[in-house]
């Protein structure tokens, strides 16, 4: 995809040809079943011969269009001979029928039919026999080119996909990831959907940097509204994009492939099974733990585990979960607003409120106390002042006790 991204850039050679290439590729059809039938010895009907002629002509047109670019990542076979076979008169028209030029005898029979004859039925019969013989001959020739036709169909589809991916990367400002083994890192990571929504509202999106390694979980702490949940969902999105061969919403990135992405967002109530949100969350995390114990290389993303239970037990569940994730062969990131003293993890903290504004920067955190910014956030949202003041008085009273 890197090659196509460079070619499609404003200074790239393919940029001026994009519209023409897109129009050509819009005519690409999936004719694998027709090719399979012919490869197994079946005689192609006129529709199948039309499909193969169309593919051959499309192959040659795209090949000619891209030839000055010297593209290395995808090449197209030479199907000019097949084009000549299926277009013997050289009309270059995207249609097919059994042409007169295939057989002088057939041409003569058709001329007799045009002029009228008392033996019309016999003439039709003889014409049909010759036409079927021609179809059989063409099918044998096509069968010999089966490998090239299959390659053409596959590589034209590849070009179509690569062009679409490259256009998306340039339009959204995405980057090509570096493949890693033991580390996942992003510089200026962003969520394209959220960025688009904020832009429509006249707001700006604050991009973040994040890095974590295998075998050691990363704990992200910070107040509510600090973007922790969005960060986890964006990490999941990026991993899916990476493993599907797409560019990534970040300025730079290194990503390691994993067997599976396991995301637990905490809000997983399942009324169909009679499970509360807490019960559903515990079941989900338990299934993740089983996979971790099996030694699979996973990307585990858990958002504020046990958030809906009491703080004492919730903190204990979150802390013990980090200990289990420490044994993981893959990567794991967990967010929490609980105070956790576990030292078997790396820590990042959302910077939080600074000069009256939320700063979403993730900074290294060596402490164990979670920032207490709930009242500040409530004030910024113009919540009831008496409510906030009573809460502050309650906090002060509890601190003195």
UniProtKB/TrEMBL annotation:
Enzyme class name: hydrolase
InterPro entries linked to this entry: DNA_mismatch_repair_MutS_C (IPR000432), DNA_mismatch_repair_MutS_sf (IPR036187), MutS (IPR045076), P-loop_NTPase (IPR027417)
Protein EC: 3.1.-.-
GO biological process, one term: mismatch repair
UniProt keywords, alphabetically: ATP-binding, DNA-binding, Endonuclease, Hydrolase, Nuclease, Nucleotide-binding
GO molecular function: ATP binding; ATP-dependent DNA damage sensor activity; endonuclease activity; hydrolase activity; mismatched DNA binding
Pfam families for this protein: MutS_V (PF00488)
Keyword DNA-binding attributed: yes
All residue ranges annotated as the DNA mismatch repair proteins mutS family domain in the record: 215-396
Protein name in UniProt: Endonuclease MutS2
Species in which this protein is naturally found: bioreactor metagenome
Gene symbol of the encoding locus: mutS2_44
